[in-house]
Amino acid sequence: MKWQGVIQQYRAYLPFADDVQIVTLNEGNTPLIRADRLAEQIAPKAGLKLYLKYEGLNPTGSFKDRGMTAAITQAVREGAKTVICASTGNTAASAAAYAARAGLRCLVLVPEGKIALGKLAASLAYGAEVISINGSFDDGLDMVRAIVERLPIALVNSVNPWRLEGQKTGSFEIIDQLGGQAPDWHCLPVGNAGNISAYWLGYKQYGKGLPRILGGQAAGSAPIVLGHVVEKPETLATAIRIGNPARWRQALEALDESGGIITAVTDAKILESWKLLARLEGVFVEPASATGLAALKQQIELGEIDPVGKTAVCILTGHGLKDPATAVDQATPPLTLPANVEALEAYLAASK
Ligand code: F0G
Asked: Which atom of ligand 1 is nearest the CA belonging to 189?
């Protein structure tokens, strides 16, 4: 059957009315890539079957599109004319795109100076009203939660249950792509904790086995690991720069029910895994997206996870082009040569 987005594909598992008009960009159906070189690097000779779920290949470059097709579809159904969200950037871009497609006004609140360029560019291109606030994502979320109590505007952050309904289709896809069974470990970054909650809902609903969940938080923004709100969250992985996750309770449930682990990884370790993904497997992601892999590598090193013969899936939540500045900052600058073949040959001779 032709792929027409996650609602159409998994309609039987989603609580939409029969005659709902679906707003879709044909999101989902992202590749599950076997990563043997990476597996050998993080767990030598262990026979670890490592897979990368490349969610950066969704229409707006992040996993948010799965939940956004559902949230915008339902918002239109309920007669909304305006939608709003707070965002570290990806939710903003996704909301802006789906709102454009549905002909809705879209407002997005982003933390000033802490949103990666690709996310800002996309949100502006899709015609959203981008509002920069001199506060954190958490401050923005407080603001949008309050405004929807006062005005007839639909909130499309993952506190909206339809977001989780759409996002849970990621679990269905992983099971389908693995031939009908869940992996042993499901590894992912945790920010506002919508995604971890949604995946767990999905695994439970599909009824084809349950993985253990491994959540990674950036060390400077690790409220769930620490067990308290972080007032001033910091990390280079700006997507998950969040100090008070809205879905905290559900995240703890997912971790508890799955026999899972939540752990903090330093920015240095996030960058290390980010580099390994690109250099060993040719998969370019934004830094936050490497946090699941960094957590897996760390827990294997600590002896907390035994990789022997296991299957692990790492969710790569956003595309590398979302954050070109970090990619360039982390690299050695390009070489400059005169425009002739002799110069190129001399370079190759010298750099053998
Ligand atoms: N990875 C990326 C690339 C993200 O953009 C986010 C969240 C996460 C992981 C964490 O997912 O919040 O469901 O735990 N980004 C949100 C945003 C907060 O506004 O784009 P989560």
From this structure: 9
